[in-house]
Amino acid sequence: MRLDRRTALKLLAALAPASWSARQISFAAAAASDARWRHGLSLFGNLKYAADFKHFDYVNPEAPKGGRVRLGAPNSFDSLNPYTYKGDAAALVSLTNDTLMTSAFDEPSTEYGLVAEAVQHPDDFAWVTYRLRQGTRFHDGKPMTSEDVVWSMEALRGSHPFYAAYYKNIRKAEQTGDREVRFEFTESGNRELPQIVGQLPVLPKHWWTGKDDKGRQRDINATTLEPPLGSGPYRIANVRPGASISVTRVEDYWGKDLPVNVGANNINEITAIYFADETVMLEAFKGDEYDFRMENSAKNWATGYDVPAVRRGAIKRQEVTLKNPDGMQCFCLNLRREKFSDPRVRLAFNHAFDFEWANANLFYGQYVRTASYFANSELAWSGLPSPGELAILEPLRAQIPPEVFTAPYVNPVNGNAQERRQNLLKARNLFTEAGWKVAADRTLRNEAGQPMQVEFMLNSPTFERIVLPYVEQLKLLGVQSTVRTIDSAQYERRMQSFDFDIVVVTWPESLSPGNEQRNFWSTEAADRQGSQNYAGIKNPAVDKLVDRIIFAKSREELVDACRALDRVLLWNQYVVPMWHLPYERLAFWDRFGRPDPLPPYAVAFPTIWWWDAARAAAIGGKT
């Protein structure tokens, strides 16, 4: 999974009450019959790394420790607490806390023990037990305990909507030994639940329930600029509120010699520097104010790096292809607004969007139009439904668009002026069919005389040059459109409360989709503030398809279910698809070493890169 603060994975329902004694007997029987201790977990198939592995294959186990990394970050921050939805949390804080398990970058759908040395669950995935390692400790030297794990679960579920939904299917967490914690689930058969528990950050109960140095009670539900106590490879060293945050490597970090950490966490100091303006941010990079950049602008990539540092090789630019799916980036139409309730209206907005013009004139031909929620992966639809897909789709035939069964999905194409006119005519006809007609004032109105007015809400001026030509196309159809760019805090609040008409969003995907799909598409998530069902989808067929993904019993069934969901989402015209790039664009000052090749599922900077003193000396600059 990609690391994204707004990225969430959400889960399930409730279990009918049963007597405690009966449940204990059931769990005891399950544990005796099919649960065994494991050093890692995999959704499907075997783990790549055996219990006695020394390090991940993609790292340099001899990587030197030292140096520093400066990263650029957009906007600002007002809190060091990432565990509440209040405020904007600073970057890098996640590096200060460890989780029960951790992922490998060369293997999808697996986790290996970090704070936990072992894990067990029954074959029906009704519960999971984690056994903590000896010697785990927080930065103040106090040991990490089972009590901390249980408290972390309950505290996080109460402090942030993300965690409340993500861990919704945990009926109970309890200590079952000095170093053991068992999590009972509200249902069986959900093979992803043990792994999402493994992603739990273990927080220090004694710190969060204590008082600060001024005698004030700490509150995990509140914002704070007091550096939280952590347990991970880094600790917060310096904070300039809203401007920068630095973390330093913990020399006596308890987990530094674990196989999952060998060759990782090599940089001594990492700093995130914040920039309110993206143009200034790029210029700061070229001026050696920070070290590494993943470029998200085609224009910048094509024209913004013609500087001496690039020409002499001090700045390296590379395009790196990974094996991760490209999720759906789109103009998301808010179905909670009545004007978007008709799929013909939504399709009309797609016909009005001229991707080909934007790609040629704004993106230097770098992008591909997105036509899947799982692009560039085996999870994306292909051709007509396969027998496996049809077995899933047929029971839902009456609830889904007929095109799902009869035609591959195709976005409108504006390859030339004639196609552009045809698509605008098609959009006008779709509006008419949906009850929207151009009135005497040349405004599109419904039967009640209400105008079709939409606001594009943005949090970055970068997208204005993309949206404004789209607005002009819509204007030709009689749609009154405005563009509003707002600050990040206001944008976040409005996103959480779904207070928008149209926004640009991306739903990131992994190679093993699961419980997060409920947060993206389910009826339950549509009305839950803070969810990622931005479109407001309430579709029983989609709910059933999401469950087929979550409860898939094999990789083949998972792929079929994802493809089926992909088709249904596309043919319901919930969004106007935008584009994707089949590789990552990296720009970095040449002061670092890195594994060659990089792992297939992550660039992993700076986690597995290292400071190269010779390279740094050769290029000079602000080191």
Keywords:
623 residues, alpha+beta, D-Maltodextrin-Binding Protein, domain 2, Dipeptide-binding Protein, domain 3, 2 domains, five-stranded mixed sheet, 25 strands, 28% helix, disordered N terminus
What does this structure look like?
It is a single chain. By secondary structure, the protein is of the alpha+beta class. The chain folds into two domains: 1-58 and 67-263, D-Maltodextrin-Binding Protein, domain 2 (3-Layer(aba) Sandwich), CATH 3.40.190.10; 328-580, Dipeptide-binding Protein, Domain 3 (Dipeptide-binding Protein, domain 3), CATH 3.10.105. Helix content is 28%, strand content 19%. A five-stranded mixed beta sheet has the order 19-18-20-14-21. It has a four-stranded mixed beta sheet with strand order 2-11-10-9. A four-stranded antiparallel beta sheet has the order 5-6-8-7. Strand 3 (101-102) and strand 4 form a beta hairpin. Helix 9 (343-352) runs antiparallel to helix 13 (417-433), helix 11 crosses helix 19 and helix 18 (540-550) packs antiparallel against helix 19. The radius of gyration is 25 Å and the shape is globular. The chain starts with 19 loop residues before the first helix and ends with a helix. The relative contact order is 0.16. Residues 1-33 have low confidence and may be disordered.
